[in-house]
Amino acid sequence: MGDYGRVRYLELEAFVTAFDAQRLIGDLTVTLDIDVVVGAYPDRDGPPGTPESVLGTLAAHRVEAAAVASIRSALFDVTSGNDEVLALAAAQPSVVPVGTVDLRDPIGAVPELERLADAGVKAVRLFPDEQGVEAGFPSVRHVARHAARLGLLVLTGGDVRRFWQPFTGLEARVVFLDTHFYHLGDFLVAAQDEPGFHTTTRLLNSPDALETVASILGADRLLYGSRTPLYEPVVPLLRLATGGLKPDEVAAVAGGNARRLLA
Amino acid sequence: MIIDVHAHWGPWFFTMDVAEVNLATMDRYGIDVAIVSATEAVIYDAPAGNRALAAVLSDRLYGYVTINPRRLAEAERDLREYLPTGRFVGVKIHTDYTKSPPSSAHLRDALALVAEHGVPALVHTWGPSVLELAEACRDTPGLRAIAGHMGADGHRYAIEAANGCDRLYLEPCYSHAPAGRIAEVAAAVDPRRLLFGTDATLIDPSSAFGAIAAADLDEDVADLVAWRNAAELFRLPVTN
Questions:
Q1: Measured between alpha carbons, how far is B194 from B191 in angstroms, rounded to an integer?
Q2: Is B76 part of a structural domain of the chain?
Q3: Considering only CB atoms, which chain A residues are within 8 Å of B24?
Q4: A159 at the B interface (CB within 8 A)?
Q5: A207: which DSSP letter?
Q6: Consecutive H or E run containing B133
Q7: pLDDT reading at A152 higher than 80
Q8: B240 in a domain, yes or no?
Q9: Which residues, including other chains, have CB under 8 Å from residue B113's CB and lie 6 or more apart?
Q10: What pLDDT digit, counting tens, does each position of A176-198 carry?
Q11: What's the domain range around B34?
């Protein structure tokens, strides 16, 4: 173990007050956040998921751009939700549109994937937990195959110990959005066999998870994804800023890797 | 000054190598003092873990005597041995690893034992179990209990729990950081009963530190949360 970030902290010590996250984050800027949604969850109280509110939160945290998916698509109506995100991206240069399909409708999902790809969308997001879909359901493998065929980057929620499996053997490019550090070992062994597997850092918040991924797989497999507006974006930002990754690795995690995957 | 009232010392069984990083982890976030329990004591063998921990405590690492509610004779021996050293300042009880929920008879017996010794008890809570802890606290004269994780995803239960027992304190650490969780609790609970805890070295302090930073607490409240409440509760010889 190194002394991740300790030198940097000591340099700042004279200025730091209790819970002053900004002092620790310093000038770290996120050039692309891979995990952002707009819309409202009916089963949760605020915060509001309006585009204005979400983009305001991101700007306040020095997040310059975001890959944005629609909760409307995830929970209610796929097509109109995707159209809202496409319209938002057309109006806001900081928004990279992410399509969504409903895993409860694998038959309808494929033409929507094709429509999204034709519209220039580079990524599709899956919401298995919200849709009550398990990794072993045929729909997941079906959507995985067609996303891979269309060259779409897949952003998926769900327990990585289960959701790795439907994406194997397809040369799929996948970003797991819910990888918890408890399950880091499972992600690592799966990702060693699947070069297209990536993870966000949101829940990799043990003292050495990011550094472990970087040492075993490389920092190019890590992406900053905040899940704004449902999670506090400052937490993974703070972890990244105070950790043991090298400056070029931090920049890659903070958006460089996401831009490469969405190119 | 920051005091972390929920920290650990020792290795974990996950894919991680953090047994030696307590002080470096604290230094990254300006945490001056941590009250730690031995992971061995929490997960496996309380007396063996307490014994190992006793050898490493310092003026920055104070200790919890971890007790297993199923083995109160052992617990009594450890409390008598370690509390008088002044290095151990509280008791840790993990309700899951010992399968001793706050509603269980043996957990209540354990809390009564802790109350007799006059130190605070940090008790793992998750979801609505924090309400059971509040009930046990009300029923145990003199007990001062800390709801570890303040119910985690059950922070609204923690609000109800803290407002139902004035000897119950809330400690927020959680590997998830749902938006607004800390602000909601801080707006609804007496700030003198809010503490700072990280779960380090299992969880990096960024999680609790960042979640509290996001709540944008008033300076006075932040001071209480950061250290004043903990210093008073544990009677620690610290000043800012």
A1: 5
A2: yes
A3: 1, 3-4, 6
A4: no
A5: T
A6: helix B129-139
A7: yes
A8: no
A9: B67, B72, B75, B76, B79
A10: 999 999 999 999 999 999 999 99
A11: 3-231
Average pLDDT over residues B41-47: 98
- pLDDT tens track for B149-176: 999 999 999 999 999 999 999 999 999 9
* Residue A209 CB contacts under 8 Å (≥ 6 apart), including other chains: A181, A184, A201, B16
pTM: 0.95
With beta carbons less than 8 A apart as the criterion, state whether A179 and A200 touch. Answer: yes
> Does any CB of chain A come closer than 8 Å to the CB of residue B200?
yes
B236 located within any domain: no
pLDDT tens digits, one per residue of A86-125 = 999 999 999 999 999 999 999 999 999 999 999 999 999 9
Which chain A residues have a beta carbon less than 8 Å from that of B28? Answer: 4-6, 9, 24, 242
Number of separate domains in chain B: 1
**pLDDT band at residue A2 using 50, 70 and 90 as cut-offs:** very low
Say what the ipTM of the complex is: 0.95
Q: What integer is the mean pLDDT of B52-78?
A: 97
Residues of A within 8 A of B214 (CB-CB) are 21, 232, 234-235
Measured distance CA(B147)–CA(A110) in Å, rounded: 48
CATH classification of the domain holding B32:
3.20.20.140
Cα A1 to Cα A183, B38, B191: the distances in Å are: 20, 19, 37
Backbone φ and ψ for A196, nearest 5 degrees, come out as: -90, 0
pLDDT at A14 over 60: no
- Phi and psi torsions of A173, nearest 5°: -105, 120
Q: Give me the percent of chain A exceeding a pLDDT of 70.
A: 93
CA A145 to chain B, closest CA, distance in angstroms equals 31
Closest among B200, B190, B151, B157 to B171, alpha carbons compared? B151
Q: How far is B186 from chain A (nearest CA, A)?
A: 14
| Closest approach of B176 to chain A, Cα-based (Å) | 7
**DSSP states of B87-123:** SEEEEEE-TTTTT--TTSHHHHHHHHHHHHHT--EEE
Q: Retrieve residue A68's tokens.
A: 């944005």
- Per-state percent for chain A, helix, strand, coil, to nearest 5: 50, 15, 35
Is B179 inside any structural domain?
yes
Residue B113 has pLDDT above 70, yes or no: yes
Cα(B229)–Cα(A21) distance, rounded to whole angstroms?
21
The pLDDT, as a whole number, for residue A6 is 46
According to DSSP, the residues that pair with B35 across neighbouring strands are B62
Q: Are the CB atoms for A21 and B213 separated by under 8 Å?
A: yes
Put simply, whether B1 touches A (Cβ < 8 Å) is: yes
